[in-house]
Design brief:
- By secondary structure, the protein is of the alpha+beta class.
- It folds into two domains: 42 residues, no CATH class; 73 residues, no CATH class.
- Helices cover 55% and strands 18% of the residues.
- The protein has six helices and four strands, in the order αββααββααα.
- The chain has a two-stranded antiparallel ribbon with strand order 1-2. A two-stranded antiparallel ribbon has the order 3-4.
- A hairpin with a 5-residue loop joins strand 1 and strand 2.
- The radius of gyration is 16 Å and the shape is globular.
- It starts with a helix and ends with a helix.
Length: 116
């Protein structure tokens, strides 16, 4: 079995099992998905990898001043405010694809900056 075929089968399994779900379409017309909590049960290795990647990306953006991170007894949360937007405008051209995807996922108005 080819790698591409194996990847497509894995993706289908994740989608059909509810481990990932369609969230919309990006600016290029490609569908976007999010990992659901069910993924931890269906494919724990992928869930762990995804969680680590998201935590790393969030930390990078926080260090850049593009997002706020808050830690408390219930866990952690990420937010985006007007001060972060000002900083985002300064660094938008330096962001990686993963960082852009992360910001889009939390609702940051990054599409508007790319459309200019």
């Amino acid at each position: 079995m080819e790698n591409r075929e194996a990847s497509e089968q894995l993706f289908s399994l994740l989608l059909e099992s509810g481990a990932i779900e369609l969230t919309g379409v990006d600016q290029t017309g490609e569908p976007t998905y999010r990992v659901t909590p069910k993924c931890e049960e269906v494919f724990p290795e992928f869930y762990e990898f995804h969680t680590k990647m998201m935590n790393q990306t969030a930390t990078e953006l926080w260090n850049m001043g593009v997002i706020e991170m808050e830690f408390n007894m219930q866990g952690e949360s990420v937010s985006f405010n007007s001060n972060n937007y000002a900083r985002l405008k300064e660094v938008v051209d330096e962001l990686s694809e993963d960082q852009v995807v992360f910001l889009e996922a939390i609702g940051a108005p990054i599409k508007r900056l790319y459309e200019k």
